[in-house]
Amino acid sequence: SKEIKIFICYNVLKIKLGEIMIEIKQLVNKEKDEALLFTKRVYIESKDESYSEQGIETFCNFVNNKEITNSFKIYGAFENNALKGIIATDSQKRHISLFFVDKSSQDKGIGKELMTIVVNNNKNSYITVNSSRYAVPIYEKLGFVKMEEEKEQDGLKFTPMKLILKDEVEK
Length: 171
Known about the structure:
The chain has 171 residues and is an alpha+beta fold.
């Protein structure tokens, strides 16, 4: 079992995951732009047979659309000031729009800590995501369930998934 230590200072969450120290913080301005570039790189590195040229183009157009991405809440996980993972949600934290961990940093607990940031203090009764084929087992490990089988839209294949946070919406 991994020993986890948590320190909070100046809106930066510092987490010791085994031998590594990770800092998680909400990203702004240029940091957001860096995170979006990171997302495209990791997306392309995770390419499998479910990816099509049209799907890659659709994904990149989505990430490049400032009208959409400017409203995202984006959190980044850093090791030695290097970006290792990001999670981006809509402004209400209802939908995960982007969730990526650098291939070399996977299976270290970084994604789980990023997800914890989104789940904690979340006022919604659930969180949704449209998962790539590659990420379905990762989301399932984090408690998400498939809402439908894999779909395709504009060449992008995804599986709609949901994480239930509360039994019902508080009134």
